[in-house]
Structures are given as structure tokens and as C-alpha cells.
Amino acid sequence: MAATIRDIREQTGLSLATISKYLNGGNVLPENREKIETAIRDLHYEVNEIARGLVTNKTKTIGMIVYDIESMFSGVLIRHVGDCLRKAGYALLVCDSCNDEKIEADNVRFLINKKVEGMVVIPVSWKEDFLLPTREKKIPVVLMDRSFAVSDFDCVKIDNRTAALRATNHLLGCGHKKIAIIASRVEYTGWERYKGFREAMVQAGLSVPEEYCRIGAHTIEFGHDSMLKLLELPDRPTAVLMTNYETSLGAVMAVNESGFDCPGDISMLGFDDLIMSHVVKPKLCMVVQPMKEMCEKAVELVLTQIDSKEERPPIELSMGTTLRDGNSIKPLQGK
Q1: Cβ neighbours of 129 (radius 10 Å)
Q2: pLDDT tens-place string over residues 67-96
Q3: Which residues are CB-neighbours of 24 under 8 A, at least 6 positions away?
Q4: CATH number for the domain running over 61-158+291-319
């Protein structure tokens, strides 16, 4: 039978009030603390974290809402956030929004009811309205990877527009002028990357045919179908920029199925250096996000908010990306 607080009282001779104060994080006399800790070890007493959380309003739990838990990108972020929280003595509760704004709003209410102390959110929505209940409950929130056009919440992300602009410039620098893009219109981040692509093309004095712009869902299926349509064009592009991991994976699958050769027939540049880029041939040139560092900063911000009682303006950390070279781009200089 599991030990109870009354068993600790019998062994220590201390009052239930003193023992309860210690278990709930309060200060007790050093000699009493030593007696209680000895009894806990001897009796193998386990603290009821749920009950203690109801008393102290500190559950040592952070909620994380991701846009799609099937996404490998989401999975890597979950792992890094979980590692950081575990080192800080916190647990992680994950909710999947399934790329659905209603489910996303339900997830916020679910986590509030679970008494999480803070949230890390990779949003589906374009607006922060679904997060307003966290304001009412004074629950700290940090956005990660994706942000809103206007936001009152802390955010850790990359400079998406600049990352896509530099990636496009890399293709231009390799001599490509007929460049297509496969991008997402589901979230603010996808549009920012699309804008970066368009900006680079305008700066280069190049127009982009409408059929070269494949703007749709953040999925493998959309990347696959979009690449097939680009390859079927009478005047097909010489290079394609894929602006997230899922569309990059789908595009690679399409090229492999089509019988076209990369980079001989089509050059490719993708986003996110995950497992795919290490197993496909040729090795893909990729825009690499500092995913581990993003997670560390997000956890740091949410825990700082929990510990601090002072209000401050929202912090937006925009981190840089790197371009990992590969063999998926064919130089076209002189053509």
C-alpha cells in the first residue's frame, strides 16, 4: 500500500501542516526538512503532482501545440523542446492541431484546463485570436517557427523572407533564370517565403510566369503534384525552390517517379535539413534552420515569463539560416 502524508507524520512526529508546507514548496526549519526527506526516502513516498498543482497552481508542465504532429519537422521541434524542459524539471504535454484552426482553439482550452504553466505554439492560424484565453488566465505563450503579421506574444523564428530571398539568389547565381516555387499559403510563414522569392526575382529583373508559382498546402501531396505539373510544362523551369520540408519531400518523390534527372533536367533547392536530404541522391542543397537553438530560446522565454511577474513588451527573436550545399543544382553559367 502506498505511503501517505500521515505515515510521514507518524515517523517524524511533525504536524500535517508542516509536512504539507514542505511538500508544497514552502520553507520549513532545516531540522524538519531533514526529517521529512528521510521519511520520504524510507517510506518510498510519492508526491501527488496533480494534487500539489491544484494547491500551488504550479504543475511543472508546459503545453506545446503543433500544426501537424505527422510532420517530421514538428517531431524534431517536439524532441528538442522536451529535452530542454526535462533539464529544467518540467514535463511536456503535446497537442496536435491537424492543420485545423478549430482544433487549434480547442487545444488551447484543453491545455488551460490541464493547468499548464506556459505554452509553446506552432500556429496554424494567421491571427492570434485563438490565444486570447491565455491572456485572461495569465498563461505565458511563446510562438515558434511561425508568427502572425501583428502579435503581442513572444516569438522565436527565422527571417523567412530573407532565407527565401538568399536561396533564390543562390539559384540565380548558378545561372538559373527560369525558377519556379512550391510554397504554402496555409500560414504567414509560407507567404513570407514566397515574398522573399518574388523579391529576389524582381531585383534580378526577371518575371515569373504564373504557372511557375505553385502556392497551396503545406503537404507532401501538394509538393508531389506541383512538381509533376511543373515538369509537364512545355517550357518547364530549370530550377525549383521548395519552401518547406513536406513540399520538398513530395517534389523529390515526383522527380524520381517522372524519369527526369536531378540536376540534369531540373535543379532543386529545399528547406530543412532533416533525414530526407541525407538519403536521397543527389544530395539536396537545403536551407537549414537552427532548430535546436530555436527550441532552446523558446523554452528560455517561456520559463522566464513564468518566473517573472513583471510585464514587458513582446520579444521577437529572428534567427539566421545557413545554406547547406549539395549536388542538386546544375550550374548554367554561359547559357
Answers
A1: 11
A2: 999 888 899 999 999 999 999 999 999 999
A3: 52, 55, 56
A4: 3.40.50.2300
Radius of gyration (Cα) for the chain, nearest Å? 25
Q: pLDDT (tens digit, 9 = 90+) per residue, 305-324?
A: 998 877 889 999 999 999 99
Taking CA atoms, 151 is separated from 146, 148, 223, 298, in Å, by 11, 6, 30, 16
Fold of the domain spanning 5-56: 434 Repressor (Amino-terminal Domain) (1.10.260)
CB 77 within 8 A of CB 272: no
Cα gap 332→150, rounded to integer Å: 41
Place of cell 528547406: 271
Nine-digit cell string for 222: 501538394
Residue 294 phi, psi dihedral angles, 5° rounding: -60, -45
Angstrom distance (rounded) from CA 213 to CA 265: 19
Given CATH 3.40.980.10, say whether it is the number of domain 160-289: no
* Residue 116: all three cell numbers together: 499548464
DSSP lists the bridge partners of residue 242 as 182
